[in-house]
Amino acid sequence: MPPLLRVLTGAGLGPRRACFRLIADGKVTVNGETVTQSTRDVDPAVDVIEADGRRVAAPEPHVYVKLNKPAGVLSAVTDARGRPTVTGLLPSEYRGLRLFPVGRLDMDSTGLVLMTNDGGLAYRLMHPSYGYEKEYHVVLKSPLTEADIRELVEGVLLDGQRTAPARVARFSEGSALRYAVTLAEGRKRQVRRMLASLGKPPTVLERVRIHTLRLGTLAPGEAAPLSAEELEALRA
Known about the structure:
single chain; alpha+beta; 15 strands
């Protein structure tokens, strides 16, 4: 069973410190008994937990779904202008679970999007301090020169700030000029802007990996829950 402090933070009552203070101040009860130990194990599905006189609902179970976003779809839960969003790509059984996309993939780009309600995992995957990689496949109209690749590897100036080093590899697929670009940070439209700054804007941009999670064989518009192996690797 989880400790009381984890249940309160998971229920959205505030950051860890604020929830700890609620417990220490005697404002939390479990089955009518005031509890001042944050490490007390509780079962939110069985125990009646109240904080400041309000019932604490059991946290929703965490759900993890990957999908292949087509072009023209927003990486957002809703859109005020009525444009299609990744939420609409979810199978019907997931649409009422308040899932959100982990990170952004611009409207013109395609590929891997992770949908979840696990805010802790989403934060770790997206925050640059953790250094988790995202890999993109791009198609260009003209090849990258050695100087272009060196600049990408050493960092490109965007908005007056140099990007973190990228990894770049060319691979063959017919006559297309295809490259894999791997980053450990995630500024807005970063890959597009880095390549455009070199005069090589991509005609195709597809995200194929987030940390250990790969797009695999998902067709555009398809979604699938993560396997136990995928989730274990992602958490590790």
